[in-house]
Every structure is written in structure tokens, then in C-alpha cells.
Amino acid sequence: MKFNEDSRVKIPSILHLIKLGYTYLSLKDNSWDLETNIFTDIFYDQLKNINKNLSQKEAEKVFTEVSLSLENEDLGRAFYKKLIDQSGIKLIDFENFDNNTFHVVTELPYEKDEDNFRPDIIILINGMPLVFIEVKKPNNRNGIKDEHDRMQRRFKNKKFRKFINLTQLMVFSNNMQYSDNDTQMLEGAFYSTTNYRKPIFNYFREEETFDLEKLLSPISDETENIVLKDNNLISIKNADEFALNKKPTTATNSIATSLFQKERLKFILQYAFAYVEEENGLEKHVMRYPQIFATKAIENKLENGIKKGIIWHTQGSGKTALAYFNVKHLTHYYQKKNVIPKFYFIVDRIDLLNQAAKEFNARGLIVHKVNSREEFTRDIKSTNVIHNSSGNAEITVVNIQKFKDDPDVIKNNDYNLSVQRVFFLDEVHRSYNPKGSFLANLELADKHSIKIGLTGTPLLGKEYNSKTLFGDYIHKYYYNLSIKDGYTLRLIREEIETKFKLTLQETLEKIKVLEGDADKKKIFAHHKFVEPMLNYIVQDMEQARISMDDTSIGGMVVCDSSDQAKMMFEIFQDKYAVNEEASYFSQAAEDPEHYGNQKLEKSKVKKAQVILHDVGTKQDRNDWVADYKAGNIDLLFVYNMLLTGFDAKRLKKLYIGRKIKSHNLLQTLTRVNRTYKNHKYGFVVDFADIQKEFDKTNQDYFNELQSELGDEMEHYSNLFKSAEEIKKEIEEIKDILFKFDTINAEVFSQQISEINDRTEIRQIAKVLNNSKELYNLIRLSGNFELLEQLDFRKLVILSRMTNDRLALINTKIALETNLETNNILNTALEDVIFAFTKIKQEEMVLADELKDTLQKTREMLGGNFDQKDPVFVSLREELERLFKKKNLSEVTKEEMEANIKALNEIYTKAKKLERENQLLRAKYDYDEKYARIHKRLLEKNPLTDNERKLFEALKGLKTEVDNEILQNAKILENERYVEKMMMRLVINQFKNKQNININATDVKRINNILVKEYINEYNGNVA
Mapping DSSP to helix (H, G, I), strand (E, B) and coil, where does residue 318 land? Predict the structure, then answer.
């Protein structure tokens, strides 16, 4: 049979979509418009069906308008407005979604002149190709990275403009489960929307549980045959692999269920897209899966009469974007109830007001700013829902900094019940003191209002905390998952060299001698202290640009005081700043530089800016921040400003010059965790020894996680070979492959996909590759009877799959190590000497990593079906020793890292044991009893050194014993009878059939284990 991506992934996925309610269309029997790929007959019929009294001529006019709108260079924004519009002529009926038609086609050609591509699966709604799915076979070389690259090239091709503008959603899958150690998106199923430059791919981790029996309709043999015949794959119809790949739990089918079941697809098309005006031009964003589930969770709370709560989404996960998507969603939600919503976004600083306003404006919302007590009072008393005359969606952004504790801000007893106020309160870990009056004022202003708190680091404390003030968590998305999903980066803390610390200490002593017992802040702001510190920062920043091979990255220095920030800027201007005009003329006068020198020159830190409330005007500060984000400024010197809510993706080096407390520390550290190009880390350079405070904050964060998630702590070679040589090699192949399913290639693929160890996969690949040579040697030698010993044709398929898995593991290792190698090479190749070096570089570990590691370790051990296995017992004891040593929740960072490392080692061993257990269980038709018996008989005084012989004996024994019990299940009530019956069968299988030399003691031992397993199973116990 054919065994490729079509038979393994594409056809099973098409059949799954049919079960979800889609109708298969053959391209042989249909026609479509070649300019847009819209199936016009379906499109016209549906237009007239949805829009009653629409004539054919009017339908054709709509098609012409749609086609013209797709020519715009706007990523399909004009078309999307038409697509979701429900006020005029509807392209999709969102009010009665079943009123639309849903089709699936395959290999629809996207052609323009000489250029073309054919997506594997295309979903049509009312004849419009709005979704496509690209599939690859599991363990394909380079994963789905090559498909990402191809799609990027296609999207840059203007000839495909209409197709790109029409497409709303894309899925790329190689039908593998997500891997925790895959940082390159090589394994799994990912979704994206269109982009003219580089599409951003997203994981999708389903949070809801589906009743698949209700959701999926059965598919008839006739329908399945139509699909198979149309794709010339009728030969796979009865293959075991095909049956396995049709299961709804495969990666591609799972993401299809999550995204394309009709209710979910309706939600995504209506609410999950945003057109964003970024610095580099227009982008189209799709909701990340945590934003989807948070939005649905908000609706669920409202439906249950709950009017307040907290969204805890880690820093950098897009909380402003979440508020925007909810403005869209809740507007429709309340309109269906004949209520008009009025949206507010509450911040506590002017810079955050400006940033939020910019973010909302970029997404197309009209923004009304409120920055004074009087404005807020007027607005809250007004019954007008919007301030703009165009009727466009609007949000009011309120800065409460100056009046948050004013008792007379709001007095309003005039409630308009047809208006629903919705308050999004940003960063609810600060500024909302219950002893102040803002929260009380908000409650008094409108007791019917909805209050949704947003935070990445909840306020932690015993006196009061975020949850006490704003209600329970509506939805949670933690830092560790955000890193796994690629939305945020890991943090590395760099400790400063002792030599440099001593230099600063000497400087401090000199200043004390000169100025006596001066205030410490004054000393830290003294030029004798600031200059060597600045020298280190500039040199470190330049070295980072070289080692990371990226001159676009920027840095930010968190100063000890505003005076220190000013002094640092003053010294920088005098010592490092380059006059751009003078630099231009000097370069023009010189000969072109050597490439290496040019690169070195580009890495230089030439421009900096201080950002303080008393330096420059508001507009100046806005311009400086914009310049920094655009890459025109290398370094920022700050004190209090920009520590929270400041997003600049290029910021990759954060220099901490003062102690920062509690959640503010986490907020500050996460300034460098935004994804940018191919960077894997954000770097924190620690001048202030923040470790102790980080440990304390991390502990508070851990405790909050523990209370929220439940107390996990309580759970724990000559040309011709002789026939004898060939037989020996055949035996070796059988022994190596013994634990694997070599009958069903799809099961085999899943089994080897669990293996991440290169040595183990190499061993399997070696014997499978040898089998191909052996096949030819057997034929050459004329010993044809030996060909019956193995299914050599099947082994060729298994060999190809194993080589694919090995290649993918090699690719992952190469990509993982490439960054570090490049960093070393980039530094080594430059002729640069630095006065200071870092003595310590370490990843900053957040408490939820310990939590997650503990939970997954406990679950992995808890799921083991053979808890008498010596390896299992050893791992359990190891875990117990770890707990007895010290309470895991009371640890420093170093101890936390050590515990995580120890837990990960236990988890890795437990995972390997579980994989081996499952392989053995599969050999016995998934009978756990015989897997346990097999292992017990190998542990002490093994009966044979040939594991396969033991398997054959036990497998034959299983068949005979099960047949006896099938004839009379009640015999298990008589243990003595069972012992006698089984003893006879044991002797027959082991001694007579398999020629295993066993004595009376051996027979008794086998019999005892066997009887105990069956009796325990009969009584409902575990052996």
C-alpha cells in the first residue's frame, strides 16, 4: 500500500472534516473562478439563499465587488469587512450559521502566470476558500520548517495577492504531538493567519472537553470510497495504519476539531482577527489560543451572573490585544440582549494611557482619553456610549494616577439599564488599594458594571491581594506555557565579575574620603562611580551585539536614582555619543571599510537617551521612546519610568542598578522577554544583586500558584554470507525490533516518535538499514526460504520512517546548538578585547516551572501500571527522598534549580520506563498482566537469555489460558483448579513448544505469578 503524507495524514483529515459536517467536492466535477478560486456556482446560490430576493445579476455584482476588494494591498482588510458584515448583503450568515455551506476540497491549484502552489486541503464556506491546511508525514526531515519557509516566499509574491487576501486561516501539521523539547516548531500542528512578510505560527492547546460521539457524525462506506477513489488511494481502505490515522486524536484531526467545528469556526471568523498598524506596516493577527479561551471564559462568567474577576495572563502574552478582541466580542454579546456596551480601559500612569491608546488605535478602535477627575466624572454620568460621530467601535482609556484616592470623584445615581459599562482594569497587581477610594467610587458609579482585572503578576500578600479585590480568576495562562508556545523568552541573569565589583568598591571608598558620610544615592550618582559602571555597560552591550550577531538589539539601564540616570547620560554624551552629521562626512571622505570593520562599527553604542519625568516634554519622551523602538537609540537610562507596560521587542539587555521589590521586580524583568527575530533569551545584567528579592517574590508567586492549582505537594563483509550468518542477523533484527509493532507501520511511527535519544534511534535505524542489505544478500545467495523469516517489504517502510526520525532529532540538536556555537564564533572572530567579563550566566527560573515539573513527574509515575518494577520503586524512593530533604516550597533560587533538575531527571527516567512499558504491553495485545509477568520473569534468575522466546511462550500461554476462561469464566472462583490447569499449560508452552529448559521450581514460580495476576484481575485488584 501507499504510505505517504496523502495516505497517512491528508485523506484521514479530509474524512475527519466530513465527520465535522463538511461535504467533499471533487475538482473533476466542479469549476471555479481562476482569479480568486471562489466556486462561483456555490457562491451565487448561497448569496441568493442567505439574502432573500437577491437576483442573479445582483449576486454577480457582489462577486465583482469582492474580486476588486481582493486586489488591494491591505492583507484583505476590505474583504474581511465585507465577510463579517451583517447589516447589508451578507457573504456569511452568522446569525444562522448552519444556513451556510461547508465544503472540503484537495489540491486546489493557486495559479498566476507561471507561479502556482496546491494546498493539501482547502475549506470552502459558501464557495469561498477561506482556510487551507498543509500536511506532512510524521518525522519528515526538518519538520514543518520547510513548509513555513515556502509559505513565507509565496506570501511575498504579489502574484498571489488575491489568494492571500481571501485566506483567513492556515494550519500546518506533520501529524505529531507537540514536544516539550522542540523550540523550533518542528513537530505538531500549528495555525496562523496571512502576512505579506512572515506568517506567525501558533500552538493550539485545547482547553475544552468535547463529546466526540455527538460532535462527529458517522461516515458511510460510500462516502469514504468516493474520497479514496478520487485520490487514487482505494488500496489503503482496509489497512490497519489507515484505520489508526482516522482516529480523532491524531494531531491534525485534533486541531481540526478545535478550529473547524462549526461553532468554533464561527467564533474565529467573527471575532479572532485584528488588522494592526505596526511600525513596519500593516499586519493581520489571529487570536492566540489563551485569548480565545479567556474570551469564552468571560462570556461564561457573564452568563452565570458573575460581574467581576481576573485574567491572569503572563507578561508579554497580549493583554491589550485581549481587551480589543473582547470589545468586538462583548459588543455583539450585549447587542443580542438589546444592551449597548460602553468600554473603559483603566491604567494608572500617563505613559501607559498613551501606550494603550496607541495599541487600540493601531487595531482600529476609536480611543477617547480621560486624564482628569473632571473628565471622568462627566464621562461616567453621560448616557452617551461613544464620543465619535462615525459610530465606530470605541474605548475610553482612563488614567487614574492623579485621582485614584479622591473620595469625591464619582457620584452617580442615574443608572441607564440599556447601557452596560465594562471596565478593563490593567495591571491589577498595583494601584488598587482597597483602603483608597477608587474601587469604592467605581462600584458606586455603576453597581451593574462589569469589572475585569488584567495582570501578569497578581498582587501577592496576606493583607490583601488581587483576588480579594477583583474576584476569582476567570482564566489563567502562566509564564512556562508562554515560553513553550514561543510568545515569551526565557531570562538569563548575568552576574558581574568580582574584579569589577572591587573596582566599584574602591571608587566608593574614594568618594567617601572626599565627601565624608554622604547619602548613598548621592555617592551612586557621583561621576567617579557612574563612569566605570557606564564603561562596563557600553562594552557589554557592544559585545552582546557581536556575540548574538545582531546589531539591532537595544539595552535599558535601570538606575539607582534619577540623579544617577542624568549623570550616566551626561557622561555618555561626553564620551560615547557620535554626532551623526560629523560621522556621515568623515565616512564619506574615507575609503570603503573592510566588511569586518563595518560590522564592528555597527555594533558600537553611539546614541542614548535618559527617560525621566522631569527631562523634556511629554512629546519629547514619546518621541524618544518611538525612536528607541524604531532602533534609532541604543541605550535608555531610566529610574521609575518604563519599568512596567513598556514593550520594545528589540530590548534584549536589561541592566539592573538598584533593588526592585516584589511584583514590580517580575514586571521589570519581563521587559526583555518579548520574542524578537531568532533570539531565545532575554538577558538581565545584575549590578544590584537582585537574587534574594527574586527568590522572595518567586516564593510568593509559587504559593499563589499552589493555592490556585491545588496542593500538588501532597501527591507525589564478504559478498556472500552463509545461511547461518544470515539467520544470526535475522535474529538480531528481531531482537532489536521485538518491543515495537512491526505489523502496523503507523503504530511503529508513533512508538519511535516517543524516542528522543539519538543513540537509541540510531540502533533501530542501523538494524533496519541492514535488513535492506540482507534482503538483497538472501536473494543473491539463493536462500529464498529465509525471506519468509521477516516481512522485508514492511521493514523498508519502517527503515525510511526511522531514518526520518533520526534526521529530525539531528535537525533539532543542530538548531538548538547552532545559536550557542554562533555566539562563540561571532565573538572569537572579532578582534575585540574587553576589560570586564561576566563570571556567571544563569537562567532565571520562575516558580511555576517547579510546579509544572513536579506535577508532570507525579503524573508520569502515578500512571505506571507496574509499580513493583525495581526501576519504578527506585524512582519513587528518589522522589520521596527529595521531599523528605526539605519542603519544596521553601527554597532559594539555587535550591529550586537543583530540585527542578532532580525532578527532571526522575521525570525523564519515568518517561523512558513508561514508554518501554507501553511497548511491551502492546506486544501482548495491550494486556498489562502479561507485560508484568514478562518483566517479573526477566528480573531474577531469567529462564532464558532470549527475550523473544519468553514472549512466544507467554503469548501462546495467554491464548490458551484466555480460551479456557472464555469457555468457563467461573473457574476463576476456584483458585486451586486454576493452579492445576495453568501448570499443565505452562509446561506445555515453555518446555514442549518453546524448548525452554525449566525445572519444577521454575514452573511453580511462573504459575504463582500467572495465577496471582488472573485472580487479582478477577477480584478487581492490581497485582
Answer: coil
Contact between 491 and 844 (Cβ < 8 Å)? yes
State the cell numbers at 717: 563483509
Dihedral angle, C-alpha 795, 797, 798, 802, nearest 10 °: 130
Residue 138 backbone phi and psi in degrees, to 5: -60, 145
Cell digits for 624? Answer: 524618544
Give pLDDT tens digits for 804-853.
888 888 777 766 665 444 454 344 333 322 223 344 556 665 666 777 78
pTM for this entry: 0.79
Q: In the structure grid, which three cell numbers stand for residue 812, read together?
A: 533539532
Burial of 83 (0-12, 13-18, 19+ CB in 10 A): buried
Distance CA 120, CA 223 (A): 19
Q: Which three cell numbers stand for residue 544?
A: 552582546
Phi, psi of 172 (to 5 degrees): -125, 125
3-state secondary structure 441-484: HHHHHCCCCEEEEEECCCCCCCCCCHHHHHCCEEEEECHHHHHH
Alpha-carbon gap, residue 710 to 594, rounded angstroms: 61
- Rounded to whole angstroms, the maximal C-alpha distance in the chain is 104
341 pairs with which residues across the strands?
420
- What radius of gyration, in Å, describes the C-alpha atoms of the chain? 33
The model's confidence at residue 498, banded by pLDDT at 50, 70 and 90, is: very low
Using the predicted structure, report yes or no on whether residue 290 has a pLDDT greater than 90. Answer: yes
Measured from the Cβ of residue 235, the count of other Cβ atoms closer than 10 Å reads 12
Select from 212, 209, 124 the least CA-distant residue to 169.
Answer: 124
Write the Ramachandran bin of 53: left for phi over 0, alpha for psi from -120 to 50, otherwise beta: left
CA distance 426 to 353: 10
